[in-house]
What we know:
The complex is a heterodimer of chains A (153) and B (267).
Chain A: H1 2-29, H2 34-56, H3 61-75, H4 77-83, H5 87-95, H6 101-112, H7 116-144, H8 146-149
Helix pairs in contact in A: 1-2, 2-3, 2-5, 3-5, 3-7, 6-7
Chain B: H1 10-29, H2 34-47, E1 52-57, E2 61-68, E3 71-78, H3 86-97, H4 105-117, H5 124-141, H6 146-168, H7 173-197, H8 205-212, H9 219-230, H10 234-261
Antiparallel strand pairs in B: 1-2, 2-3
Amino acid sequence: MSYLLAFLQSDFLRTGLLSFIATLGFALLYQVPRRALLICATIGMAGYLLRWCLMQWGIDWVAATFCGALFVGLVGTLPARRLQLPLVLFAITGIICMVPGISAYKVLVYFNQGDVMGGLRSAIETGFGVGALVSGIGAARIITDSEWGFEDS
Amino acid sequence: MMSDRPTLTVPELVEIMQVVMRVGVLMLQSGTVSFRVEQAMQRVAIGLGAERLDAYVTLTGVTASIHCGHYHYTQIARVTRLGVDMSRLSAVEYLTLYIPGTATPADLCRQLDKIEQGAPPYSANLVILAVGIACGAFALLSGGKGSDGLAAAISAGLGLGLRLQLQQRRLNGIAVTVICSAVATIICYSMMQGLALLQVRSPLPQAGFLSAVLFQVPGMLLVTASLDLVRLDLMSGMARVIYALIQLFSVAIGILIVMAFVDFSIL
């Protein structure tokens, strides 16, 4: 019990709070309608926390990112239907915390410094990260939206 | 299907097409997936009495043919000034979902005018503040200390402020991205140097530096690109991927320009 309490007090809450704030900031940048703002931030936080927890349990970060994105894609359909807002609104703000922006920027910087291996490593890392996000969102869309899953006649 | 409707004349078809194209261009400019744009355009066309609409939507242009009886009419629209505006997107999509049976093209035009002229829900200052704090949060999430978060927050906020200003003056998008990432990096560098003078040194300053330019990450483009590709809208999806890569490279070039002048490695 005390172990659980310490766990909650430490990195879990900090990560959750930070990802909530980060998602909220980008939701404002994308001019998300007011009534969806807090929902977006919560979905973004939940997705990021899911990925974080899976990584803490020793699951590979690519697989964890896929699970986080799949979660965001699946959960986003509920408020989208209820508030009659586009689905893409919840999907995009939800995964923004997981976009590997930092490693993407590192690619050119490494190459510029002559560190070819470092650059390649960052590029591959970015590719895997984006690929995991994309397959998570894509899979969620195919599961929940018949228009996406089956080609129309 | 629409047998109860009278057959439209060509001028009527042209009038409907103007609304359909406006809906398509507005949704594309707000940054949504091509498939959704096609769907919305078809809803508007059928809602206003046309029989069928074939739309071909790419990132930089819309081509569509509208059919009714023996007549058909084709129009092309160029799309520039791509951005992300979810509230406008939601408003346009909502409008196309609930077109009253008695609506005329002029009615819809008036509603589109209202959506276009409506002020965005959040003021520029609020957005700058929120994005600054968000970038600070990213710095902390990627392992930075409080001082890194502060430096990243302030430089990202100032960088975004500059970006909004330059975008208003319609400067080329690549130039805007390069300039803003260079400026944000310079500000972040000077703040870190200043903090170092006060004996506040960070063990991992890289987190702050790279988070300071995160406000220019094309996250939206990457997601919409992938959704286009899943739908096999290959042209549109490829265009979005290329556009996202250009933005990422522009940001990196901005960082590299600064690094060439200051004696500091961000890695």
